[in-house]
Amino acid sequence: MAKWTPKHEAPEPLEGPVVATVTGGTIVWFVLFLVQLPFYGWFHDHGHTWWLWTCLAGGGLGLIGVWYVRRRDAALKRAAAAEAATREQQEKREQREQQPQQEQGPQRP
């Protein structure tokens, strides 16, 4: 079998409200668990208790996801702020280097 190679480059990942999306999904899983909880007896009698535990597991994993994406979002913001500060310092340094040259003017032979 031949090795598969892509015909074009993959597009850039979309950045959106990741924290809100994961939080919303986590809330949905917990709500589904709570809605099904009063019917535990019926689920147990019909062998469908895994539905409840699936919702609870989804909510628990969602909490881990919320923790992860909040940390990721904070790290991205810190990196952007550090990059902006570095860029600003570089611009100031370049301005200071150009300023003495402008004050002296052109030198005559």
TrEMBL record:
Residues 85-97 have a biased composition (Basic and acidic residues). Keywords: Membrane, Transmembrane, Transmembrane helix. InterPro entries: DUF2530 (IPR019681). Residues 79-109 are annotated as: Disordered. Residues 98-109 have a biased composition (Low complexity). It holds the Pfam family DUF2530. The chain crosses the membrane at residues 21-43, 49-69. The keyword Transmembrane helix applies. The keyword Transmembrane applies. It comes from the Bacteria. This is DUF2530 domain-containing protein. It comes from Streptomyces echinoruber.
